Amino acid sequence: MPLPPAPTQRAALLKPDAYRMTVFEDDEAAEASAAPPATAAAPTRKRAATKTSAAKKAAAPDTAIPSGAGRSTKAGVSAAPAHSRARPADEGAVRMRPAVTAVPPAAAPRAAPDAAPRKKRAAGPKKMFVLDTNVLLHDPTSLFRFEEHDIFLPMIVLEELDGHKKGMTEVARNGRQASRTLDALAAAHGSADMALGLRLDSTGQRAAGGCLYFQTAPLNYQLPSSLPQGKADNQILGVVEALRKLHAPREVVLVSKDINMRVKARALGLVAEDYQNDKTLEDGDLLYSGSLALPTDFWTKAGKNVESWQSGVHMYYRISGPVVAQLMINQFVYFEAPGEPSLYARVTEIRDKTAVLETLKDYGSSKNTVWGVNTRNREQNFAMNLLMDPDVDFVTLTGTAGTGKTLMALAAGLTQVLDERRYTEIIMTRATVSVGEDIGFLPGTEEEKMGPWMGALDDNLEFLAKGDGGNAGEWGRAATNELIRSRIKIKSMNFMRGRTFLNKYVIIDEAQNLTPKQMKTLVTRAGPGTKIICMGNLAQIDTPYLTEGSSGLTYAVDRFKGWPHSGHILLARGERSRLADFASEVL
């Protein structure tokens, strides 16, 4: 049976240079070259040999669909590049493509991300960190915070960890969690030799790329005779000294929360560092303040592009320009310049390069008193707008003593509980950390035990009920202390685990003394309709091992900034008395 005539018309469309081509120079041709392997063209040639009309219909889809595509459907043909559909599917073109697609173009982008992290980790030598016991007791997840570096645990650290596991304190809970973590790492490696190290990412912690080593054999070291050999800290220093000689020139670093331990290590010529991962900020001055001053030439530069409209009692401004990049949702902005009208507004929307500002309610005016209280400065007015906004569920207030944090929170809470009936009751708690020596156990019920810690509550309630805040014009203002106290519950933080607060107004006082874990425990108690206010002075931290950078209040401010249902304000000016203001500055 004679063969049908060859498709000379289609072959003529292919230039003679194409037969000598080895690599497509243009990007589209390279993309089309990834489509069919040589084996995919065999059925096309077979169909062309049996029936020319079928070959004309099947050649274009077979050669145009990229590798991995489905059948030659209408959608599959339209997805291919236009030039690849027009390229003839003759034998020369099909034979040329395997040479081009020997290395699939899609493989290169997949290989690049895999290689990038390995190259980044190999940029410098891995360090070995020797952890002190207090690091594990401070943060039981610290094992996974050292990225690609290795960790070494001396045997005396395990002994001390075992000695702190009993009890219900925070240290005991952290010790038990650290022991469970070590047990999980050992179990993940089965019967493998622990002297070779345990991969820290074997339990799913992908951020840790190093290994964990235990002291499985005695190490030889020589310490000065002035250091007692039996003390645990000195044994750890001896292990660091031995590891430094054993792994030279690799850097061996001691990590400890104990200042004296680090001082002794440096005196012996050892490298020692503090555990920094628990610190939200290195410098307290970098903490988000919640407000931003607009430049004095703001209206001159941005005035032509500002849109304004009014909705209800508020004015709205849509602004653009470089200042938008510095703004966050619920951040306050203000414009004050001599001879020009002032602007006090809150950021309610950020979209692309524009932001919408909403003017504030002036609680400094006598028309807008909150339980008889008026704000006395700009930051207090910002704070009261947050406290009275039902759409803001979480408010943090920081500032020095006498800035009005507790008074404003209580006044806003009493107004919304007794007048507006927005919340059912006020729940107040605080961290029970003594400034001086502890006076021992306190008698009575939970609320009676918390009574001595709530002196600030009593002082502010006295002012709100009888003092300058008193106003007998409404029933709420003439309410007795018994009625007010019936709506205020004093709770201890020790019994908050597992609770859920529904439609409550929760005040957490002295929040600077909370750890990030305690802060998470309290904030996650909020149920539907609950509002939480955290207040504190970061300059008055009484909890051991807590600093301004590692406080739970700092942690909450940094994590919640920019969330549409939270707000923060740093109260800058004290309003208690001139004596208190001067003492805050000079003492």
TrEMBL record:
Gene Ontology molecular function, alphabetical: ATP binding
Compositional bias (Low complexity): 31-43, 50-64, 95-115
Residue ranges of the region described as Disordered: 28-121
Keyword entries, A-Z: ATP-binding, Nucleotide-binding
Residues in PIN domain copies: 127-263
Domain of life per record: Bacteria
Pfam family, one: PhoH
Any GO CC annotation of this UniProt entry: cytosol
Similarity section: Belongs to the PhoH family.
Protein name: PhoH family protein
